[in-house]
Specification:
563 residues; mainly beta; 6-stranded antiparallel sheet; 5-stranded antiparallel sheet
Amino acid sequence: MSVPSAVAQSPGKFIDTGNMTTPRTGHTATLLKDGRVLITGGAHTDSLGKSAVLASAELYDPSTGTFTPTGEMTTARQWHSATLLPDGRVLIVGGLSEARSFPSSSEVYDPVTGKFTRSGNMTAPHYWHSANLLSNGKVLISGTPTLELYDPASGIFTALGPSRAYGSENAALLTDGLVAVADRGVSLYSVNNDSLKLVGNAPGRQYSFHTTTLLANGKVLIAGGEGDAYDQTINEASIYDPHSGTLEGTGLMLFSRDGHTATLLPGGHVLIVGGYDGDGYDTGVPSLTHGEDYDPSTGSFTSAGALVNLRDGNTATLLPDGSVLIAGGTETAAAELYIPPLRAASSASLDGPLAPASLASLFGSRLAAATESADPLVQPTTLGGISLRLVDSSGAATLVPLLYVSPSQINFEVPAGTLPGDVTLEVVNAPAQQPQAVVHVDRIAPGLFAYDDNTAVAYALRFEPNGKQTVLSVRNTIVLNDRPVYLVLYATGIRNRSSVVNVQCTIGGIGIPVEYAGPEGSGIPGLDQVNIELAPALKGLGVANLVLTVDGIPSNTVSVDVR
């Protein structure tokens, strides 16, 4: 049996960028549609020790690395929220103002005019809360004491019910109208027709000053926060699975933190930056010098490198080029960029290793100047002026077929003749100098494609008594009856299997015979498919985990809903 192996990735690096116009702590940073970043509010203590909450705002331009002032808010705010609306404006809500007052007001920033204008009042004051944009254009505000909904068309807030959540990143939007809020454990809410319904609850500790991050596999990472005592921070992290409704521990962070930031990077890893570690409550200075990287495939945290500046109350904003802008915090105007390491992974599982004749992705920053896609049936070796050179374990070099290039991601096919072993990847003609990436190639590397809620990318076929076939969407429940139903899964990295006999599939732990596992029929290079018949034993199973095992090597876990 071949055993998958992975190559350790080096940490990214933090580099200086321009300073903000003023030091800020507890401010907001919002990526605008034109690629600039809007910075609003926060607080600053001057050289005389006088602290002031700020109404000022500024814009960061990634193309120049500079900050410039823009219009002032109508109200000075710290620990407020800022949400990009569908029309490109930014909703500013709540926060802490001067003399520790808590404004219930909101306002809207228009990037065209550079001005802020008042909007409606909340039903209750909020600060250090979370704000999530729903697909209907409305904004869900979650935090003590209420959950409420903002309608940009009317400027009106509507109370939905009580909330115990506390922290600026306490909620994660899962799907349209489905929100996970980390408060006392994790509560799952359905928000429809301007009403709120509790549809699930996973008991756990009281969360505060933590981060809540929706992962690429549809699960939610809850990291760090305040412990039972005021000056106690924790390094615990948990994973909430909305399909099973379970809350389970994952690897421990390298440092105890609260008031930090968590940023989902292209490729599915999470960057953790800043915060207090507990000792800072006594000294007034945070002692955290390193960021850390969370890998969902292993459930582990590793160093992301040393920051240029110590920070607490900072912001972290993923930029279009794949880098992360980290600004302010701890009474500093300094800003820096996190440049993630080059990392290659299966396009399906977002993990390594790779396999010959499989689809893969390279993640990083400033990989290409623009975004371009190729015809999947005719894959060029140069796309958007970019090429990718692969050198295999024998030293043989080749330019790989490309499907997609962007500043933060390159999708490609691993050539069929690539020998197993460590390979290097080099981006040719990238707009910024890039190091080489190293990744392991095995004979097979099973990967199943999934949607952003981790539902399998697949379709089902039901054979009717008259011989016709009815296509069923996996985005809906697949209902089994007395007619045969086949599930067709999209995959990669399996076509070099030894025999279809050595390909197994389980759904909810129930073994399902595999009838076909190999190249997908349309002829797209690197794309595989797996055909299985859904057995009667699956009736009534509900949402369940599906895993494919090829020659003893398991794939990533995806989900299907079978009733």
